[in-house]
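pls design
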């Protein structure tokens, strides 16, 4: 992937997250060189400039001698590499590194060509710093996580390469790379920024899109299993309200069910007047989810193409302007949006599972087993889904409203974007399991309607599951069935198996 600063799409970031290599476009290097030259001129003038020849944070008034500027930059990296917790996933660290590379490519950070090239080379050679996942409050940048990345670049800490974790200096030597000797501004530029929070949020956005599309399919399957009506998906209803996501979800559900013999079997003389909200209000709920995810995608797309370290270097005037682009409030809000979206995808899916196992609501055998009583069928998988949904509700408390002062009150309002974004992959795992359970339950319900067939699209989804999991006749060890179905959801395999165009975030 060629990174052209300020012009990188979400699809590009998705490819990098999934393993594509990343390097800067040739046109970016002139701006990088100009920015580094501006820093050199600022140092030569001798005036105190924050981040270049002063201390940091509350110590910004302390002037640093020219012969100690390299030590200053090394010290800030070592002192700020104070993260804790489990190592961040390798894919997220790679994405964080690529985001930092793109930011440097804008030519506003004052780093040397050699420093940017080192980041690029580590990505190319698969050298991924070991970055503890906890320790950032999402203001003054993701200081601790990015410091662990920077520490690896100067030969300190640990690097993962080929699945093995080595001391950073040893890993660099094996790859034929020399540890960096940081110049003025460079340590601060490396550890200042929102790339850790943004990387986690982007990774979760990509997962959320797969889950959203999967839940459209399982929602349609559940509607079929319960012999629900497709009238609530009529385009005229949604046109009158006007929300884009609602219209698109209604269209998608109608398309997924088109041509169903199950639907046709009860299209006339159905004694039920209305379906439960979990079926009838899918366009309204999932449409709102889609709109929310798209807003988060817009925010993250802008953030990923921006510059968020401090101070920023303006080479045309030799100015270093100190501001607050490191404050990750936009990312925190986006992460909270994704958390709410994940909650609602799982919540309405769990309600459909509960509806399917209740014979009074679904018209199907109790707990979806042919011999209830002797067999418990889907009784406890629904309980598991309920547990996961409640766990996600607890995790969805908005991170962006929780600020705590740091750095002797110099950094007195923070975004909490890092943990707001970091919780999302665990929430996505929970939703994957809920939708996997719904896939099992809905297909089990459809099996009771044989020999009637569903639509071509939904029959493809049914067949895809049945290639892995047979119909449940009598109770068996349920966990393997759930694991198999969840894997189809998590991998995007179910979405790929269905011949239908489903809306996404962009």
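designed seq:
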């Amino acid at each position: 992937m060629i990174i052209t600063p300020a012009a990188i799409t979400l699809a590009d970031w998705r490819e990098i997250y999934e393993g594509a290599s990343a390097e800067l476009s040739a046109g970016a290097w002139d701006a990088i060189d100009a920015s580094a030259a501006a820093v050199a001129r600022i140092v030569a003038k001798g005036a105190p400039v924050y981040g270049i020849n002063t201390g940091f944070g509350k110590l910004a008034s302390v002037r640093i001698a020219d012969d100690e500027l390299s030590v200053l930059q090394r010290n800030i990296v070592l002192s700020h590499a104070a993260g804790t917790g489990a190592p961040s996933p390798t894919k997220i660290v790679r994405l964080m590194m690529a985001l930092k590379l793109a930011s440097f490519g804008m030519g506003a950070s004052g780093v040397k060509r050699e420093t940017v090239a080192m980041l690029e080379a580590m990505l190319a050679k698969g050298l991924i710093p070991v970055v503890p996942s906890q320790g950032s409050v999402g203001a003054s940048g993701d200081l601790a996580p990015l410091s662990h990345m920077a520490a690896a670049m100067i030969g300190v800490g640990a690097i993962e390469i080929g699945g093995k974790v080595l001391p950073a200096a040893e890993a660099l030597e094996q790859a034929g790379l020399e540890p960096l000797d940081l110049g003025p501004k460079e340590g601060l530029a490396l550890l200042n920024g929102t790339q850790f929070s943004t990387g986690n949020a982007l990774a979760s956005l990509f997962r959320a899109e797969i889950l959203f599309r999967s839940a459209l399919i399982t929602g349609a399957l559940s509607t079929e299993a319960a012999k629900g009506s497709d009238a609530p998906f009529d385009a005229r209803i949604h046109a009158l309200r006007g929300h884009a996501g609602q219209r698109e979800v209604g269209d998608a559900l109608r398309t997924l069910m088109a041509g169903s013999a199950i639907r046709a079997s009860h299209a006339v003389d159905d004694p039920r007047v209305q379906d439960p909200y979990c079926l009838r209000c899918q366009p309204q709920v999932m449409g709102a989810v889609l709109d929310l995810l798209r807003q988060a995608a817009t925010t993250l797309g802008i953030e990923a193409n921006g510059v968020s370290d401090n101070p920023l270097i303006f080479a045309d005037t030799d100015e270093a302007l100190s501001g607050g682009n490191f404050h990750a409030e936009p990312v925190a809000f986006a992460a909270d949006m994704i958390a709410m979206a994940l909650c609602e995808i799982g919540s309405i899916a769990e309600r459909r599972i509960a509806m399917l196992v209740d014979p009074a609501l679904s018209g199907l055998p109790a707990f979806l087993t042919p011999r209830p009583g002797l067999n418990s069928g889907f009784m406890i998988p629904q309980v598991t889904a309920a547990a996961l949904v409640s766990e996600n509700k607890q995790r969805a408390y908005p991170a962006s409203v929780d600020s705590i002062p740091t750095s002797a009150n110099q950094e007195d309002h923070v975004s909490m974007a890092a943990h707001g974004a970091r919780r999302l992959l665990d929430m996505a795992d929970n939703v994957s399991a809920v939708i996997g359970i719904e896939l099992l339950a809905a297909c089990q319900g459809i099996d009771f309607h044989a020999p009637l067939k569903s639509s071509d699209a939904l029959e493809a989804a049914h067949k895809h599951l049945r290639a892995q999991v047979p119909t449940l006749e009598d109770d068996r060890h349920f966990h393997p069935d759930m694991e198999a179905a969840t894997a189809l959801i998590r991998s995007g395999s179910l979405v790929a198996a269905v011949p239908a165009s489903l809306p996404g975030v962009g």
